[in-house]
Amino acid sequence: MTEPTLFKLRVRYVKRGRLRYLGHLEVAHTIERVVRRAGLPYAVTQGFSPHMRVAFSAALPVGTYSESEWYDLVLTEYVPAPEALARLVAATPTDLVPLEAAYVDIRAKALTAHLTRAVYRIDMTSAEGLAISPADIEDALARICDRGSIEYLRGKKTKRLDVARTLTAFSVEHAASGAFQITLDTHQDNDGSMRPEILLGALDAMLAARYLPDVELPVLETGIASFLCFSVAAIVRVEQSCEDERA
Amino acid sequence: MRHVYEDRFAEIEPLLNRVEKPSRYIDHEWGTLAKPDAAYRVCLIYPDVYEVGLPNQGIAILYNNLNKAEGISCERGYIPWIDMADEMRAAGVPLLSLEGAAPVAAFDVVGFHIPHELAATNYLEALDLADIPLMAQERTDDDPLVVAGGPSVYNPEPLYAFFDAFLVGEGEDLIVEFCERHRELKAAGLTRAEQLRELAKIPGVYVPSLYELVHDEASTRWGHTVPRAGEDVPEVIYKRVAADFGVTDPVPQSVVPYAQLVHDRLSVEVLRGCARGCRFCQAGITYRPVRERSADQVVSAVVHGLEKTGYDEVSLTSLSTTDHSCVKEILSRLNRRLADTGISVSIPSQRLDSFGVEMALEVAGEKKGGLTFAPEAGSQRMRDIINKNVTEEDLDRAVRAAFQAGWRRCKLYFMMGLPGERDEDIVAIAHLADHVVEVTREVVPPEQRGGIGVSISVAVFIPKAWTPFQWCAQLDDAEVKRRQQLLLASVKSRAVRVHYHDAETSLIEAVLSRGGRELAPVILGAWQRGQRFDAWTEQFELSRWLDAASACGIDLREAVQEPFPLDAKLPWEHVSPGVSRGFLEREYRRALEGKTTHDCTRDTCTGCGVCPTLGAGNVLVGERS
Ligand code: SF4
Question: Which residue ranges make up each domain of chain B?
């Protein structure tokens, strides 16, 4: 039996609003249902428990916004990309809406191997009464980079975030009075990726050492959402792309 | 209203990072139906966490029907898990509905589902979180009406103090009538008490405050309940029934969750009711008469439901799906229709004969996990007592067929402590399990025999209201332990694993199943001592219940171990599924004589009284096999 002709549709979608609290598996599950609701001719795997041939880009931490999440969907029939996109949009909850869809070679590398670059934007405001400047933040981030890594807790396990390998570049901009925007340009692969909230935890500790010397520092662990020296309005994954194809 | 209807999501949002499974609380699922602008609002609450409550079909039906009604909006609520409940209390956030993230106390009606006895403390947990007075009596015109209904409404007495009204029976029409009438009465400016008095006139509505408890020599220790002097209310509230089940919406389900659930799939209710007549089974009485959907209706409902929701599994639900007269046709049509889509069909339980296995084979495909069978008792004598009309040959044939077809594991369900049970019946459970292992070894090739697994699960029998065994006592703990030991000692084969159902929760189920109004303060006391989520083994602490009961002067063990005289007036007889008392008494006597009674969907009417009392009848779409 010859392999039937298959088509790989690559889709970019967002994760925003309340739906940013969904876990990776919950999103994956939801998108499979979207595809079935959209009535697209999806391919299924062979074997004991056949399932839809769909693959996702790297997991996004729960609570993080994204403008650039991706999935590859294998179809058994060609559906013009604009039509496929329209059908997906109609079947998707608005906070996960797909924005673009295009066919790629059926043998194209998996998204997790292809998308080695992730750019994050962090919107933050300094805590009341603290006169933190963009230069302070830049300085603190530079010192974290010099250390090379950050230790943190995940449950009871101690983990290391390799900053030297995952953080390619960063910049800090002053947005409004006391408000800043940090941009992180990061590298991700099978060996690890940036966890912005851990980096922010380390940044907070660094700033607190200077501005709040009397306050005891909280333990650095996954899932942290509140900081001493600033509040974070949003962490947004604004881009995921292939480093080798950088303009 | 004590609370304003407004979106307060911003107050729980900061808590989401601190709790497990935040997707329980975020809503915005596909397929929600609430109407933000409606003037009249209902919040339906399932008394457990989101993942347990969301798949509930009863709520899906009511949610769908209420939202179809003009000017009524229905939202959903669930019980926050203990981590979130504690965070919400600390942050001063009340219980919120899902769709509007609005305080539950701001709704016109709050309706709870009553799935089983072990939800009792969770109603109080929800009301407390919602900032609604726990006691119906303490609520004022500023509070919502708090009502309840569902499969376990047939002895509402232990819960009487917490609810303003119970809605008895099939709620699809009743809930809409109730809410529309309530809206009129409210608009007319009636007080809460006046509203309830009017609402009690709707058939199927039980307003417990209009009834009182009588203790006399005709009743049990719990007394019995009669209309209060001067109240114009019926002596018996009969359940509501959808006589024409075929016209009800076969796909009431609309909400597709994000969270991964235990039963994460489309459900289509293919028939309602079961008339096999197992004498321990409450659902077998309370869901009568038996009504089937046609094969065409089921197949088109499945296709349409899958398109609408995008699920990859559909379950054909009912109490006994393989009894449907067209089940074979339905399954083969669905298999053809769903080939190569990766979508699977499931049926909830296997009928204990070779036909059951044939049907299981239809849905199993390549994947053969375990099969479950429920012989319920080990000896023929005992199976005749409980009217479980299966023989050892039936089981033999079913197991043989299953293991020949490729299954390697099966699970057998039994009960212990049934009326008239002797040691020989316990030993018979062991023999039956050993026999099953022998049968499997005959049909499984030698090199695959290592994979054979037979497990038996033995629950303690819980006598339930409105069954032929409603007069019976529950076996005491010491005797349960002794019989468990006897069973363990009697099993010979090492391929058999024995599991026991938790005896401590069985005690609470038993006392709430057959108890009366005096248990309301016990439930309150258990909740005040920290009890919630009783159905979650790790959250259940019997000592809280025992302490609460002894503070009320009640010995729970003594209460459940007491049989009721056959002529006593029982605590629940004013809330009826339509079965006649004479039928239950006759069935009880026949049980003691070891006489079986046939299934009225396969033979003549056996006179249970449900059809004439409710003005309905069995509706079959073909001949049952
Ligand atoms: S009244 Fe007769 S036909 Fe109807 S459910 Fe009872 S036994 Fe069956």
Answer: 9-238, 245-515+542-614
Pick the CATH number of B9-238 from 2.60.120.260, 2.60.40.10, 3.40.50.280, 2.40.50.140: 3.40.50.280
**pLDDT confidence of residue B243:** 87
Residue B9 C-alpha, separation from nearest chain A C-alpha, in angstroms: 10
Q: Show contacts of B330-339: CB within 8 Å, 24+ apart.
A: B330/B270, B330/B295, B330/B298, B330/B299, B331/B359, B331/B362, B331/B363, B332/B362, B333/B295, B333/B299, B334/B299, B334/B302, B335/B362, B335/B363, B337/B299, B337/B302, B337/B303
Residue B448 distance to chain A (closest CA, Å): 19
Nearest alpha carbon to residue B402 among B459, B336, B353, B438: B353
pLDDT above 60 for B69: yes
CB pairs below 8 Å between A and B: how many?
Answer: 81
Give the whole-number percent of chain B exceeding pLDDT 70.
Answer: 99
- The tokens for B299 are 């197949």
CATH among 3.40.640.10, 3.40.50.880, 3.30.70.580, 1.20.1420.30 for A7-114? 3.30.70.580
Which of chain B's residues have a Cβ under 8 Å away from the Cβ of A32? 310, 312
pLDDT of residue B370: 80
What are the pLDDT digits (tens) for B521-541? 999 999 999 999 999 999 999
- Rounded Cα distance between B148 and B153, Å, is 8
Contact B258 A26 (CB under 8 A): yes
Give the residue carrying structure tokens 């347990």: B52
Mean pLDDT of chain B: 94
- DSSP conformation class of B451: G
Q: Whose CA is nearest to atom 2 of ligand 1?
A: B605
Helices (H), B365-515: 380-385, 392-404, 423-443, 477-490, 503-514
* Token pair belonging to A15: 């994760």
Pick the atom of ligand 1 nearest to B579's CA.
Answer: 6
The token pair that represents B41 in the structure block: 């609002």
pLDDT at A30 over 60: yes
Q: What does the pLDDT read at residue A247?
A: 46
Residue the block writes with tokens 């975020």: B26
Provide the 3-class DSSP secondary structure of residue B293: coil
Please tell me if the CB atom of residue B49 comes closer than 6 angstroms to any atom of ligand 1: no
Cα separation, B406 vs A204, whole angstroms: 60
Decide if pLDDT at B367 tops 70: no
Place of tokens 């969301």: B54
Check residue B406 and give its pLDDT: 87
β-pairing, B72-78 with B109-113? unpaired
Q: Is the peptide bond before B55 cis (omega within 30 degrees of 0)?
A: no
List all residues of chain A from 196 to 235 with a beta carbon under 8 Å from chain B: 223-226
What is this structure's pTM? 0.93
Strands B453-460 and B409-416: parallel
- ipTM score here? 0.87
The Cα–Cα gap between B355 and B134 comes to: 50
Residue of A175, A33, B206, B188 whose CA lies nearest to B196: B206
For B465-479, how does the pLDDT look when each residue is reduced to its tens digit (9 = 90+)? Answer: 999 999 999 999 899
Q: What is the mean pLDDT of residues B235-263?
A: 92
The domain A117-245 is placed in CATH, from the list 3.40.30, 1.25.40, 3.30.70, 1.10.3710, at 3.30.70
Give me chain A's average pLDDT, please. 92
**CATH architecture for residues B245-515+542-614:** Alpha-Beta Horseshoe (3.80)
